[in-house]
Structure formats: C-alpha cells, structure tokens
Amino acid sequence: MEELQDNIQFQLTDELIEKVEFLVEEQSDKELKNLLNEFHYADIAEILDELDLDDAVYVIKLLDSDTTSDILIELDEDNREKVLQNLSVKEIAEEIEELDTDDAADIIAELPQERQEAVISQIEDEEHKAEIQELLTYDDNTAGSLMAKELVKVYETWTVAGCLRRIRGQAKEVTRVHSIYVVDKQEKLIGRLSLKDLIVAKSDQKIAEIAKDNVDYVHVNDDDEDVAKVMAKYDLEAIPVVDDTHTLLGRITIDDIVDVLKEEADKDYQLAAGITQDVEADDSIIELTRARLPWLFLGLVGGVGAFIIMFYFEDYLPEQALILFLFTPLIAAMAGNVGVQSSAIIVQGLANDDVKGSVNKRLIKEMLLAALNGVILSLFLFLFVWAWTQKFDLALAISVSLIAVIIVAGLIGTFVPLFLEKRGIDPAIATGPFITTSNDIFGIVIYLLIAKLILGI
Amino acid sequence: MEELQDNIQFQLTDELIEKVEFLVEEQSDKELKNLLNEFHYADIAEILDELDLDDAVYVIKLLDSDTTSDILIELDEDNREKVLQNLSVKEIAEEIEELDTDDAADIIAELPQERQEAVISQIEDEEHKAEIQELLTYDDNTAGSLMAKELVKVYETWTVAGCLRRIRGQAKEVTRVHSIYVVDKQEKLIGRLSLKDLIVAKSDQKIAEIAKDNVDYVHVNDDDEDVAKVMAKYDLEAIPVVDDTHTLLGRITIDDIVDVLKEEADKDYQLAAGITQDVEADDSIIELTRARLPWLFLGLVGGVGAFIIMFYFEDYLPEQALILFLFTPLIAAMAGNVGVQSSAIIVQGLANDDVKGSVNKRLIKEMLLAALNGVILSLFLFLFVWAWTQKFDLALAISVSLIAVIIVAGLIGTFVPLFLEKRGIDPAIATGPFITTSNDIFGIVIYLLIAKLILGI
C-alpha cells in the first residue's frame, strides 16, 4: 500500500526537489523516470512548478507524453506557458493527442494565434482535431468552454445487450462514464441512464424502456458560473450540453466545476480585500502591484478628500472643539468596518442565490441591525469620552453621530452591491476599499455635521 | 422537454409561493402534489424555505417520504430544525429510512440527544440503523463525518461474471456507483475498478487480474478540508475511507466535497469582512449582531486607542502642526488597506497550499512590494500637500511617513497570518478588522513619530 500513502500524504520537500534537480543535472534519465513514476501527475506538476524552466522542460521531454500531457494541465498557468514556449509544435501536438478535448482546447487556447494553427495542423487524429476546433469556437466562461466532447451516447432504439456491446467501444476513450446519454436519430438529447441501470436491466430490453427522461442539461452558451450552481444544487457529477435544437454537443464533469467554484470564491475574496482578481502569493512584485495599487490609490484619494473636508470644518470649529478631530480615525474605521460587513454578506448572499425579497426589506433590516450595533457601541464610546474629557455634550455629540455614521455605513454597504447586481456589475467590487473609502468620507462628514449641530457651534 | 427546462431554469417567483400557500390554505392536496411533483426536490426545498413553518410542515407531511427525505436535506439548516421539531419520532424515522447513511446521520446529529435515541430506535432496517450509529461516532470535520456506508464492494477472488451478478444486488441501494472497491477476505481495501472496466473485461477473468491497485484513500480521522484538497487535486469523484488496519469503512463522494469547499470559502470570506462564520443574509438581526458586533467592538477599541495616542501627541505639537491630525484618517485608511491586501493573499495562498518557501523570503518580498506601492502613492500625496499647504517640510514629513506606514502595514499583514498558521490557528481571522485595527494604531504612531522627527518639533 506504499504508493497509496505517497498519493495521499504527498509532501513537497526541499530534499525531493534537490534530488530531482541533481538527477536532471546528472542526466541520469533512468533513475529520474523511476523516481517520478512513483508520483501522481498532479504531484509531479507540483515538483516541476518548483524547478527552473530548463529542468522542468527536460523532465517534460523525458517522460512519456501520456503522463506529461496530464502534468501540463496541472502546472501553474505561468509555468505552463513558459514550458510550451520551449516545446516544438510537433511535441505540443503529441501532448494534445493524449488529452481529452476540453483540456486539449484549453492548452491550445493559451498559445499565440499562429502557433495554435500550427499545432492543430499537426494533430493526426482527424476526429480529435475537429472536436478541438469546435471547442475553440465557444466563448470563455460559457458551458461550451467547459465541456468535453468525450461522452457515452446510445440511441433509444438500441437494446440493452446491443448497447453494452457498442459502448464497450465508446467507453474505452471516456475516462469516466457517469451517465449514458440517450439520443434520437437526429442526435437530440432525449434521456439518460447509468451503467448501473444497464447492468441491472434485462439484456433484451429496449433503451427507450429503461432510460430516464428527466435529464438535466445546460445550453452551450450558458454562463459557466450558472452551470456550476446548477450542478452543485442538483448534486450532478456530469451534465450534458445541448444547442438550440437540443442536439447533444458534449458534457461537463464535476471536476471542472470544482475549479470554477474555487476561482469564483478566490476572486470574490480578493476583491473584498482590495486585490484585483487573478494574482497569487507567488506572482511577481509587478503583477501584485498592478493588482493592488489601484485600490490603494482609491484609498489615498479618499483620504485626501477626508483631509479637505476636515480642513474646511476646522475654520468653523473653535479651539476646544478640535478634539473632535482626534476621533475621526475612529469614526472612519467604524464606518469602514460596518460597510464591509454589510456589503460582504449581501455579496455572498447574491453569489449563493439566497438573497430574495425586496431591496427595501433588506435596507430596513440592515438599518435596524446597524442601529442596534450602533447604540451598543456608542454607549461605550459615550462613557469613555465623558470620563476622559468630563464634557457631557462632547461625549453626547460624538456618540450620537457614531450611531448615525454606523447606520448610514450599513445602508451604503447594503445598497451598493444590490444596485450593482441589478445593473449587471459584479457586486464583489463593492466590498473592501471601495466601501471603506466612500464610507470614510460619508462618515467624517456626517460625524462633523452632527457634532457641530449638537455642540451648537 | 418541458420538465428539463423547469429544472435548469427554475425561478422562485412570488406567484409560485403564493400559489403553494393558497393550495395549502385550501387543503387541496391533490393539486398541491401535482404542482410540486413537477419540481426537483432541491427546488421544492427552496419553496419551503420561503413558506411559514406550518405550511412547510403541511407540505412535508403531504408528500411521499422518498421525496421529503431529500427535501429535508436541502432545507436551510434553521428551517430544517424547526420542521423536525414538528415531526413525530416515527415520521422522522421514516424519512431516515429513505436516506443514504451519511445524510441520515447528519439529520439525526442535528436532533436533541434524547430525540436522537428515540428516532434511531424507530429505524426498522437493522443494517441501516447500525451503519448510522457507526457514522454518529465520528467527529465533525473528519472524513468519517463525511462518508457514507453505501458503496459497491467486491472480493479479489470473484470472477467478472460472478461480480456483475453479485453487484446487481449491491448497486440497487447505491445511488452512484463510481468506483467498485476490491477487498481481500479481511475486508481490507486492496484495489478498485470501474463498472466500465468490468463491462470491458472478459466474463471469466478474476477481479484480481483487472483491478487497479493504485487506489487513493483517506483515513477515517483525516480532516475534511484535507479530504477536499486531495479529491480536488486528484480530480477524484469518490474516495474510499479506511481505518488504521486499512479496513474499508465507507466512501466520500464529490458532491459532499463541493459543499465543504463552499463552506470553507464562505467562512474565509466572512472572516475577511469581519463577520464570524456561519451567518446568512436571511439570519435574524440578533444572530447577525452576534456575528458582527465583536469585530466592530474591536474596531471601536482601536479607534479609542488611536484617540489616546493622538491626544498625547497633541501636547507636544505646536499649533501649526495640528494639520498633521487632519491626515490621520488617510494614514489609518492606507495602513488598513495595505494590511488587508497582504494578509488576504497570504491567507488565500495558505488555503490553496501554494504558499511555499521561507517566511523571511515572504517578508522581504512584501517589503519591496509595499515600498514600491508606498513610494508611488507618497509621491502623489507629497505633491498634494505641498501644493495645498505650501510647506515643503510638512509635505515631506507626511509623505515619507506614509511610505514607512505602508511598509510596516504590509509586513504585519504578511507576518500575522503566517504566524497564526504555524501556531495552528485559522489565519483567516487575521484579515479584516483584526488587521485594519492594529494597523490603524501602528500607522498613526509611526506617522506622528516620523512627522515629529522630520519637522524637528
């Protein structure tokens, strides 16, 4: 059971990487093969991600293309791009031959235009080539861009026995059978059945008799996130893809959906933190700066705005009231925190489709929620300011305006994402710096206005 | 194809809900059944989530237990709890009979202790009962808590033909076969094969000949998030679960893993926004307050801290330098934003297992990154302050300290999550208010100190 434990407990150690680097250095190909063949291709990909480009390419060229094709898929996108640049059109085509159509299309799509055609022209299997070319025609983030052409298809008129005989052929090239899709003479999807149904059925039964006709499906142009939601909601492990005429085009399997869900979650998480999507901790400083600086600049502009507001207020405030300014960071922080909390919960609710009912209901609920939190927090602040400054009216002014600030911040945080969603803009951008910055400014204005009012300055 | 379109395009409309409410009101059971039977159980669950408790219970009692058991699983946890309170022990037991062992155990685990035993004692199928009782013994968030006992198991000594004959029996009670697991006489997991392999194989071959021995598996006590990572990494749709002796105990399917991944992502996202995990937009104001108020209080304490710091600095600053205070919200905001950015990317990297290499390398990289961002931003701030105040030294003081603040904020944001991870604490708590608040304070201190230094006050 050793290998199993390797699989499950694989740890990428520096020793292992050094050993691989050494074997590459020594060009002791046999040992290298023996070492790496112990590992799952996903693990080998992790190793290659840590190697220098030359070493990685050396390993790719060394191993058999049925392994390396799988490794390529698992490589970090940046590394894969570099590796592919170091492979000849012929070599890439050989990898492509080994891959399922969806993975093959993904890899080819990453190549520069002129190389794409060169590689495709090198694919020997004409059917495989045609299928890949079809997949390349579908837009990103659609069901078509996720689906594979590999599937097991039977005609309603076949018998169970004939079906079993025939799908032996089809099944060979399909990694996982999942459902068997039933089509009519026009290749239109009309039902499904599982291998289990087939095995349990009598061999002389007609497919039409045992097929289930309630087959879920998606349209080739459906949004990939919607496909993910449907498959997750209905616990589907594969879903067929059809066109306007219900012709069966391909199928999407759950492993691709797991990736979509993870990407979506990562994107929202990064936006909430003020990072424009699609960077990793290991990206270059320039890439990370490109992702982070715009949001920081937004914050800077907001801060400058806050300064200008306070600057003008200062003229109207007498000396003794300047203490108000010492609380502006607190006010701004609270406005920002409340805004992020309320926007985040709405953004997540929208992502999970569990935000229903009217916008007004949401706003009223958030107002009550913010008011409740605001009152509790303001009570503490009131007591502190009163005890510290011995000025009742000042303590009152600051704590009352904190309540107002928290309520407004909560409402902005709730309204903005709902508004963006209605406008068809990704509400996730409404969390993080966007909300904190706008709330900083609103908060400080409201704070100073109310304080001024109460202090009767 | 009508029903398919309902499935895929199901929209929860007010009309539909009102119609259901009306039919319940009228007690026109036949129409109600006909209406609901059109929908997938996951859709019916969405409808029930919108109904009053009484109406929901009425529908549950009306429909057949093979449907309602699936509906129960899909209901919002809060609603399910309420519904179960309104079902008799006998009724719950009937639902349990219909469910796979993993779902059955999850539902029973949600019941109060005394009801648990009452329900279990009512389960008629003795094997089902025993399996559920076994599953209830495993800790939350372990492989054991995710696995189901339903699986297809064959002995290495069987022939393909005998195997097919025998698994017809087992397969009936298994919703999805996925892999067939091969065990030896001691029930120890020694390999796997797919239904496809079985169908493609010759009927007189021995299982031992065609079985694959490189079967991934997890230990019953493995952490559920690790199981999710393994299944996602190796694109597994089901994985067997074994104990210390490699005895096959059960299996985990990908649909449960999708839920684990979503929950984990939601939790991190909420923590980043300063919301203690496990609330939804539709939870009560009290629940939401409990999840949000502690973080806001943290922010309040931080703000008070900032006030105290500024208060004491004020004594040392001459009139003309009070303008420094007008920039504290800007400084605090920048410190917070940078901190959240750098911590979020580390937290996400840790979650996705792609943060490798030494802590020092990370800190140095983040320092360079923050310095780069800081210089660019400070340049703008310098020009603004200089133009606005006509004071070169003031502009210099403020913008230089901004660079320092951004660097420190970036380092704190990078170090804290790495530190927490090493200590075995969920680094996700290090994002959001925790980082913004601590960075507000550090930021303001650094800012005022450096400004004081440069201004030579």
From TrEMBL, chains A, B:
GO cellular component: plasma membrane
Main subcellular localisation: membrane
Segments crossing the lipid bilayer: 293-313, 325-347, 368-388, 394-420, 432-455
Entry keyword set: CBS domain, Cell membrane, Magnesium, Membrane, Metal-binding, Transmembrane, Transmembrane helix, Transport
Membrane topology of this protein: Multi-pass membrane protein
Subcellular location: Cell membrane
Claim: rRNA-binding is one of the keywords in the record: no
Domain of life the protein comes from: Bacteria
Record carries keyword Transport: yes
Domain CBS intervals: 147-209, 210-267
GO molecular function: magnesium ion transmembrane transporter activity; metal ion binding
Pfam annotation, one family: CBS
Protein family membership: Belongs to the SLC41A transporter family.
Subunit structure: Homodimer.
Function: Acts as a magnesium transporter.
Protein name: Magnesium transporter MgtE
Gene behind the chain: mgtE
